[in-house]
């Protein structure tokens, strides 16, 4: 368990030090990072750590904004660091595609379709799903039936993300929340009755499994309906004091984790609601930010951000700061991913020179040229390029007619495609 900070006490000396540290810029640096007591106490050189903490707490209390859910009070600050990144996200995560990441709407599906898969995989892996990225992607692309609980968790997350995209303009209601949980938890809980149902008892704790220590005790189950009702109002309505939509989305994420309304699947549900709120408020690119991939890689910081907020008088700024940093990393990763996809298109360009081969088919030829043992089906092509099943089958049939693919029968109805024996010979005939 984290060390609790000392009780704050303010006097005339605290106010004098506040002015001094503000003018020096030292206070801004600490508040931009939003350091907790366990780090702050090592930052001071000439002042006692407890006194230093008093100054920091006073500065934070002067600008905090309060919100309430049920009988519980929470607060947060909007630091310069948070403001800077909010402006950055307003410019790049909303708006139109070309201005955000330098590609046109024509290439949207081509470059971005697998990002939803990445999010589904990472969000599930954080909660214990144990499978490789490659196997998980192939399962989703081919819509293969999950073989185990891990694969079921990932497929559930993927379908939930797709559902949210389709219903992004809906309001959040208790019924909608329960349905989201049912989608996410389908066939993955010990008791099937817990799917889409609030927990019925208080025998649930958030535990640090490395040492079996209880780190969070959620509100009693009798309080859940009221807390969720307040959270729905927070989701659907404007507050009297303006709260930036991204900050609201992050608070919604935190509150589902804090309320812990379900027996399991709270983390996945919380992250799904964050995506929903962001999409509802016009931050369409959020659909393609694989935030859970970053969280999975910084899980210790993610968990500490929750604990810092709860221990330090429900100050949500710790969690907001962490989440904002994560979004920045996810946006950077998306730009790098798109760069790689653009390179793939450039590499596939030589195959477009072949008569009667379109852009998608050129990329299929590139895949087979690099992976001779690849087995393709229409469902994978449909999901990879975001096209209809008819178009996917037409692409594969055309490549078969051109001699690049060979059809193999799977059963009486289904067939797949593999690289033909004449593949390399045909390429050479086109001087490729």
TrEMBL record:
Domain of life of the native organism: Bacteria
Active site positions: 260
Ranges where the Fido domain occurs: 172-325
Pfam family membership, one: Fic
Stretches that traverse the bilayer: none
Record's keyword annotation contains Secreted: no
Keywords: ATP-binding, Nucleotide-binding, Transcription, Transcription regulation
Any one GO MF annotation of this record: DNA-binding transcription factor activity
Binding positions (ATP): 206-216, 264-271
Entry protein name: Fic family protein
Organism: Flavobacterium pectinovorum
């Amino acid at each position: 368990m984290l060390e609790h900070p000392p009780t704050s006490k303010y006097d005339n000396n605290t106010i004098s030090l506040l002015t001094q540290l503000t003018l020096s810029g030292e206070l801004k640096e600490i508040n931009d990072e939003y350091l907790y007591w366990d780090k702050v106490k090592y930052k001071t050189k000439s002042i006692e750590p407890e006194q230093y903490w008093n100054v920091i707490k006073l500065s934070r209390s002067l600008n905090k904004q309060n919100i309430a859910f049920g009988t519980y009070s929470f607060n947060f600050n909007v630091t310069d660091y948070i403001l800077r990144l909010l402006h950055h996200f307003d410019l790049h995560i909303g708006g139109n595609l070309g201005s955000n990441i330098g590609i046109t709407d024509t290439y949207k599906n081509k470059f971005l379709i697998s990002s939803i898969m990445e999010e589904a995989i990472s969000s599930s892996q954080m909660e214990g799903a144990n499978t490789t990225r490659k196997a998980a992607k192939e399962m989703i692309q081919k819509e293969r039936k999950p073989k185990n609980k891990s694969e079921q968790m990932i497929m559930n997350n993927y379908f939930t993300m797709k559902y949210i995209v389709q219903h992004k303009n809906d309001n959040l209601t208790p019924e909608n929340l329960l349905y989201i949980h049912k989608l996410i938890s389908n066939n993955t809980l010990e008791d099937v009755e817990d799917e889409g149902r609030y927990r019925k008892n208080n025998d649930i704790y958030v535990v640090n499994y490395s040492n079996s220590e209880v780190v969070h005790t959620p509100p009693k189950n009798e309080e859940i309906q009221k807390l969720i009702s307040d959270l729905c109002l927070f989701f659907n309505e404007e507050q009297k004091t303006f709260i930036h939509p991204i900050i609201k989305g992050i608070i919604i994420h935190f509150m589902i984790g804090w309320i812990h309304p379900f027996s399991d699947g709270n983390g996945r549900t919380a992250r799904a609601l964050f995506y929903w709120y962001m999409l509802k408020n016009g931050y369409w690119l959020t659909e393609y930010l694989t935030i859970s991939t970053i969280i999975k890689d910084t899980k210790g910081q993610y968990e500490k951000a929750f604990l810092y907020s709860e221990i330090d008088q429900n100050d949500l700024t710790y969690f907001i700061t962490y989440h904002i940093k994560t979004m920045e990393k996810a946006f950077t990763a998306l730009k790098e991913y798109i760069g790689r996809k653009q390179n793939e298109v450039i590499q596939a360009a030589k195959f477009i020179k072949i008569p009667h081969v379109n852009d998608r088919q050129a990329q299929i030829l590139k895949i087979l040229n690099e992976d001779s043992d690849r087995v393709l089906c229409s469902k994978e092509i449909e999901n990879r390029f975001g096209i209809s099943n008819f178009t996917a089958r037409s692409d594969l049939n055309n490549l078969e007619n051109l001699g690049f693919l060979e059809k193999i029968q799977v059963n009486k109805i289904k067939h797949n495609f593999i690289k033909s024996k004449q593949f390399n010979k045909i390429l050479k005939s086109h001087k490729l």
